[in-house]
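As a warm-up, study this chain.
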Amino acid sequence: MQTAYIFDRNGYRVASPALQTDFDAPTILFTGESMIVGHCLPWRDTIPAQTSAMLGMQSANIAVSGFANDQSYLRLITEVRRFRRPVAVVMLFAPAIFDRNLDDDRPHVAPGLVWCPAVKHWRIRTLAERVIPYRSAEAIERGVAMTRDVLSAMVRLARARGAVPLIVVPQFEPEEPG
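Now compare it with the structure written out below.
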């Protein structure tokens, strides 16, 4: 079965081509990656669509598949300005894909919200890292600091726009006692 992905002229996933996002309406903004986009799901089964239906309020799905938290935050900075009545900003933090926050082979944000250009790596290194995933303690600490800074900035941005910030942390497996 194929999934139809429909995006409006702003690049937000919507239910049908006829729908366009109303920037004057009270809106819940959703940012993140494929879990928020609704990878392999019909629109009606996505988190933004179900939230919109339950609350009777417009949702704006500004998520982009494959994004790390810094990329989602940068998109939010750009897009939230367009909405005159943001009610909430929902951002995904998925520990299972935290590794994306450590990638530096793309333009990225470092701790302190410092903008950094992509770092060129030898292709063989990139391939080796996919086969044998290893991150140094220093790289992990840097990623934790960047993630903390980005999530804190998202909270501040939402509040500055009068919206309630919500960070969603999905849990797919039973929690371990530790």
